[in-house]
Design goal:
Elements (H helix, E strand, L loop, with lengths): L2 H11 L4 H11 L2 H6 L2 H8 L3 H13 L2 H10 L3 E4 L7 H4 L7 E6 L8 E6 L5 H15 L4 E4 L5 H11 L4 E4 L13 H10 L1 E4 L11 H11 L3 E5 L6 H11 L3 E5 L9 H8 L3 E2 L3 H8 L19 H7 L7 E2 H8 L3 H13 L3 E4 L3 E4 L6
Parallel strand pairs: 3-4, 3-7, 4-5, 5-6, 7-8, 8-9
Antiparallel strand pairs: 1-2, 2-6, 10-12, 11-12
Helix pairs in contact: 4-5, 8-9, 9-10, 11-12, 15-17
């Protein structure tokens, strides 16, 4: 068996324990030597952690490589190891890269230029809009989008990328055959078809709480920068930001309403020195790169509007505005406001949100 198979073996029996695995590699000289090492010698490395040593040795003694590879093949998945040329270079550079990754789809060289968009699972319509539009604008600039396929901001970031036919990578906190949340099955299939869904957890691994902080270090490790969009003061997104700082990545944050609890996380990061993000250009500037493809301008100069449309458009901002409020402030009949909103949507200037609310469609590219 070649070296890469031993990377796979250790990843399966010791998931999310990369530091421990690399310690074994360093002590024995290779992962192959560690795999073949006497039980007594392995136990000595664990010291007083007898239970941990016993669990690892049991897994090693009962491991069936043929069965594990067949399980991956059955769901159309594969694995890449630290020894492979297509192992993500950004991830290879962190302190504790996983010896192997389980993959559906493909990771390519283009994904070296990646940005993570992360945030709350209970995002507001503002946050969802920002995540989607940022994603679209970055994709048009040749950036791959990384996130965790969770509800809220993560899903919006992936969907924005897919809508612009870009590359996106979803990092799971479970095995590839355990879809979480369940309603994201179709989203996962779309991501795998045009990008990649990855995990360091073996098949059948459930989405246990401790998996997600470990997953977050992979999200930041794959990325050149982490952008936080809506997060509470104690949030997984802030854990991702902490990992990013440890890994030498840029940390950025999108500001929000001072009255929203979900603004506390981003505002805390901004106070601590994170780059304030208003548009995709802010992210590109911080990374020190120029756009690979022109980012669509958000100016309205070339878009013809009639008088009613101009009136209605002037009342809509980044923050969602309810239809009734637009009617009240415009002094126009409701039917005219409705017609104007419809044409503004067709002109890709305004988007309708749940609850009869409307917001600017092109805020992010401004």
């Amino acid at each position: 068996m070649d070296d890469r198979m031993y990377c796979l073996f250790w990843q399966i029996i010791a998931p999310a324990s990369a530091r421990r695995v690399w310690q074994l590699d360093n002590h024995f000289g290779s992962l192959k030597a560690a795999w073949e090492a006497p039980e007594k010698e392995i136990r000595s490395l664990f010291g007083t952690k007898v239970d941990a040593a016993d669990a690892l040795l049991r897994a090693r003694n009962t491991f069936d490589p043929v069965r594990e590879k067949e399980k991956l093949n059955n769901i159309g998945a594969d694995f890449i190891t630290y020894k492979d040329h297509n192992y993500p270079e950004n991830l290879r550079a962190i302190y504790d890269p996983p010896p192997a990754l389980f993959v559906m789809g493909q990771i390519t060289n283009a994904d070296q230029l990646a940005v993570a968009l992360v945030g709350s699972r209970k995002a507001t319509s503002y946050g969802l809009s920002v995540a989607e539009q940022l994603s679209v604008a970055l994709v048009k600039s040749g950036i791959s989008i990384v996130s965790g396929m969770a509800r809220g901001i993560d899903s919006a970031a992936h969907k924005g990328c897919l809508s612009a036919y870009g590359r996106t990578i979803a990092v799971l906190g479970s095995g590839l055959n355990v879809i979480y949340p369940r309603e994201n099955r179709k989203l996962m299939e779309r991501i795998a078809a045009s990008g990649a869904v990855i995990s360091e957890f073996p098949l059948d691994s459930q989405p246990e709480a401790w998996h997600f902080p470990m997953r977050n270090r992979i999200i930041s490790g794959l990325s050149r920068a982490v952008v936080v969009i809506e997060a509470g003061e104690k949030s997984g997104a802030l854990i991702t930001a902490d990992f990013a700082l440890e890994q030498g990545r840029d940390v950025m944050a999108v500001p929000g309403s001072i009255g929203s609890p979900l603004s506390r996380g981003p505002h805390k990061l901004i106070k601590q020195g994170a780059k304030l993000v208003e548009n995709a250009g802010d992210i590109l500037d911080e990374l020190g790169i120029t756009t690979l493809f022109p980012v669509e301008e958000s100016t309205n100069a070339s878009v013809a509007l009639n008088r009613d449309e101009e009136t209605v458009f002037g009342l809509i901002s980044v923050n969602p505005v309810h239809f009734d409020e637009i009617v009240d402030k415009s002094n126009l009949p409701a039917q005219k406001v409705l017609a104007s909103l419809m044409f503004l949507e067709l002109k890709n200037l305004v988007r309708q949100l749940p609850g009869r609310q409307y917001a600017l469609c092109k805020f992010i590219n401004g």
